[in-house]
UniProtKB/TrEMBL annotation:
GO terms for molecular function: oxidoreductase activity, acting on the CH-OH group of donors, NAD or NADP as acceptor. It holds the Pfam family adh_short. Belongs to the short-chain dehydrogenases/reductases (SDR) family. SUPFAM superfamilies: NAD(P)-binding Rossmann-fold domains (SSF51735). This is Farnesol dehydrogenase-like. The keyword Isomerase does not apply. It comes from the Eukaryota. The keyword Transport does not apply. Keywords: Oxidoreductase. It comes from Acanthoscelides obtectus.
Length: 250
């Protein structure tokens, strides 16, 4: 298998949650390879700082402030992208949050927010990206940033809702892969499932997590994995890629 990311040069990628962590590292990686990358997140200052940092690289970073729990914000990003750059050919569904509320004593609003960011927004962005890819007969690629929590039930209290949302991501990725096969579309679906990654999400995690987060990956490791799956030839679909830090006992 010959790996090359060159066929994506100049193509349009949309990255949700591009203001920090895995999303920011991925945007940086793709811009470095000459892609036009549209990044959506709520923190305007962080997106603009990233755009400034990436000025002069082979590709370009286009910051778009928005909240992925608001459908209209996602639609605006896709509309702007279609009009200004062309159809989306790569979607990185990365925006995600950890729920700080357990089932016992938890708050419904926290559960809903987590489900809306981790699942509903992913579905909305996927629907819009597929519209671009199918209307234009593109060989697209949709990459869902999942988690080991999408495959195993993590230990400890407080992670029930997060784990449930990531199991949804596993299920949705598999369903959509089959749907593309049924429709005979050359659109790849990939789930990337990291173990602990040292990003800001950990600071917002419940304080009584029974997980050793000192054994961790870096955001760049996941961006490298994304580069790898994008670099595979059109006939090869990496459907699931689980990445754990060495020494992990989860
Ligand atoms: N770090 C880990 O250990 C780990 C492990 C497995 C999987 N993951 C997954 O990796 C993905 C990225 O997380 P990360 O670790 O890189 O954490 P992070 O640094 O906290 O990044 C999360 C991103 O999601 C965005 N986001 C959150 N809510 C949003 C909303 N309502 N609207 C728009 N954007 C929103 C944040 O941007 P704003 O706050 O600016 O909106 C931020 O850019 C998540 O899906 C997470 O579940 C992480």
């Amino acid at each position: 298998m010959v790996l090359s990311i060159d066929r994506w040069f100049g193509k349009v990628a949309i990255v949700t949650g591009a203001s920090s962590g895995i999303g920011a590292a991925t945007a940086e990686k793709l811009v470095g390879h000459g892609l036009q990358v549209v990044g959506i997140a709520r923190r305007k200052d962080r997106l603009e700082a990233l755009a400034k940092k990436l000025t002069g690289k082979k590709g370009k970073f286009h910051p778009m402030t928005g909240d992925v729990t608001k459908e209209q914000d996602i639609l605006n990003v896709f509309d702007w992208t279609r009009k200004n750059l062309g159809p989306c050919q790569i979607l990185i569904n990365n925006a995600g949050i950890i729920c700080n509320s357990a089932i016992i004593g938890g708050k419904t609003e926290d559960w809903l927010q987590t489900i809306n960011v981790n699942v509903v927004a992913l579905c909305t962005a996927t629907r819009e990206a597929l519209k671009d890819m199918m209307d234009n007969n593109l060989e697209g690629h949709i990459i869902n940033i999942n988690s080991i929590a999408g495959h195993y039930i993590l230990p400890g209290p407080n992670l029930e809702i997060y784990t449930a949302t990531k199991h949804c991501v596993t299920s949705l990725t598999e369903s959509m892969r089959k749907e593309m096969g049924r429709l005979q579309k050359k659109i790849k679906f990939t789930s990337i499932s990291p173990g602990v990654v040292a990003t800001e999400i950990l600071a917002r995690a419940p304080s009584d997590l029974s997980i050793d987060i000192s054994i961790n990956l870096q955001a760049e490791d996941i961006a490298d994995a994304i580069e790898y799956v994008l670099s595979t030839p059109p006939r090869v679909q990496i459907h699931e890629l689980m990445i754990r830090p060495t020494g992990d006992q989860i």
